[in-house]
Write a structure and sequence with these properties.
- The protein has a domain at about 35-90 and about 115-235 and about 265-395.
- It is globular and about 60 Å long.
- The protein contains 17 helices and two strands.
- With about 450 residues, it is an all-alpha fold.
- This is Amino acid transporter transmembrane domain-containing protein.
- It is a multi-pass membrane protein.
- GO terms for molecular function: L-amino acid transmembrane transporter activity.
- One of its GO terms (cellular component) is organelle membrane.
Length: about 450
């Protein structure tokens, strides 16, 4: 694997004349102007980078966060959201520091630098599992919102079903097929991540619309006294209730996973000394949105909060124009997820290409390979969204496996490996803490899920 030559401070200030360093390293090589025809690209702006990273973070995970409040209570739940934001910032800092010293331009490059080819392949596989799972969740939510969903025997009507009544054309499969062909496929054809900065800005705006309306509805219901006092702490009565707290950990982990796009955004920044500020600004924005969504979502629906809180917005809110607000909230967030899709799809395609064709020319310059990989991945995600029943199931699987490796275990392992001797004692202590916390909490979460499933299957026979 080749490493690039050190950049001077002057060169770091501009990406205009930057050359390709290692075009086959996953998670975005440096600029591919000569191969892909992007000669006029002078570098991404700070604002565009913040929008792209924030869009990577605020995806479908936000919809499952109010349900975590139902398990943890408001106090512990909000504390965990803030704690995970700080832990995510620390893990990204570890990656960036290692990539600077090792002169690598991608997460995969850092893993290869620390652990060789096996490390890079392990990361690629984890990104594939995580991103496929996340994109399946996006499609599931879009299907729930537009076509409806059934939970615990209760059917929650979708927007189209509410407007036009049940019909063959507004069923889940048809709606997802049209969305895939009309929205996902065209956006997935863009070959540079900075090309998505305007759709990213719009997606953040749509998420804010969703949040503002939900906050407004909650405040109105608080004023008229129709909201009960929420649970502040978890309801712990026995060992089983303790185990039931752990399945929320993978959901919280998944909510902040953006590591696979940090280097992609860094590589396109006009001034790459701004990447730390980009990361901190994005995490501050997203954690604020997460806390407010969790707080007001749980206040609004209480113990009736569903795994996908958007599905709650088909009930009578008890306020004037409640049905209109329901539709605006659901449509705005469905639109947000449609625009987030290509941001997460971008590194997924790049990693699959690096795994299958490690010696081929850059993906952006091979239209046939680009098209076939894109078509195959979108088809797989479409099928998964039609067969996986719940976003909670998908989040628990990806969060307890691939996401925790990408977000915490791999960055901590790189720091402990410390090939370049840059890790301080506190860095290594934090790394050990990350690995122990990740492994123990997710092992217990998997055990708790398995225990609950076995108990559920055994109960009808008793």
């Amino acid at each position: 694997m080749t490493n690039g030559s050190p950049e001077t401070a002057k060169e770091k200030k501009s990406r205009k004349n930057k050359q390709v360093v290692d075009e086959r390293v996953p998670l975005l090589p440096k600029q591919q102007e000569d191969d892909a025809g992007f000669d006029e690209f002078d570098g991404a702006s700070f604002t565009g980078a913040v929008f792209n990273l924030s869009t990577t973070i605020v995806g479908a995970g936000i919809m499952a966060l109010p349900a975590t409040m139902k398990v943890l209570g408001l106090v512990l739940g909000i504390a965990m959201i803030i704690f995970m934001a700080f832990l995510t910032e620390a893990s990204i800092e570890m990656l960036l520091r290692s990539s600077r010293v090792g002169k690598t331009t991608s997460y995969g490059g850092v893993m290869a630098d620390a652990f060789g080819k096996c490390g890079r392949i392990a990361l690629q596989i984890c990104v594939l599992v995580n991103n496929v799972g996340v994109l399946i969740v996006y499609m599931i939510i879009i299907g729930d919102v537009l076509s409806g969903t059934t939970s615990s025997g209760i059917h929650h009507a979708g927007v189209f079903e509410g407007w036009f009544g049940p019909s063959w054309w507004n069923g889940r499969t048809i709606v997802l097929l049209v969305t895939t062909l009309a929205v996902f496929a065209p956006l997935a054809c863009l070959k540079r991540i900075d090309s998505l900065k305007f759709t990213s800005a719009l997606s953040v705006a749509l998420a804010v619309v969703f949040l503002v309306i939900m906050v407004g509805i909650t405040v109105v219901k608080l004023i008229n006294g129709s909201i009960l006092m929420p649970r502040l702490l978890p309801d712990v009565t026995d060992f089983t209730s303790v185990l039931n707290l752990f399945p929320v950990v993978p959901v919280l982990v998944t909510a902040y996973i953006c590591h696979y796009n940090v280097h992609s955004i860094d590589n396109e920044l006009e001034d790459n000394t701004q990447i730390k500020a980009v990361v901190r600004s994005s995490l501050a924005l997203c954690s604020t949105v997460y806390v407010m969504t969790s707080l007001f979502g749980f206040l609004l629906f209480g113990d009736a909060t569903l795994d996908d809180v958007l599905a709650n917005f088909d009930t009578n809110l008890g306020i004037p124009y409640g049905s209109l607000f329901n539709d605006v909230v659901r449509v705005s967030y469905a639109g947000h997820l449609m625009l987030v899709f290509p941001i997460v799809f971008y590194p997924l395609r790049l990693n699959l290409d690096g795994l299958l064709f490690p010696s081929a020319r850059p993906l952006a310059s091979d239209n046939l390979r680009f098209t076939l990989i894109s078509f195959g991945l979108i088809s797989l995600i479409f099928l998964g969204a039609n067969f996986i029943p719940s976003i909670w199931d998908a989040f628990q699987f990806t969060g307890a496996t691939a996401a925790v490796c990408i977000g915490f275990i791999f960055p901590a392992a790189i720091t402990l490996r410390d090939r370049h001797g840059i890790a301080a004692k506190k860095d290594k202590i934090l790394s050990v803490f990350m690995i122990v916390l990740a492994v123990v909490s997710n092992a217990v979460a998997i055990y708790s899920d398995a225990y609950g499933l076995l108990k559920k299957n055994a109960s009808p026979r008793e």
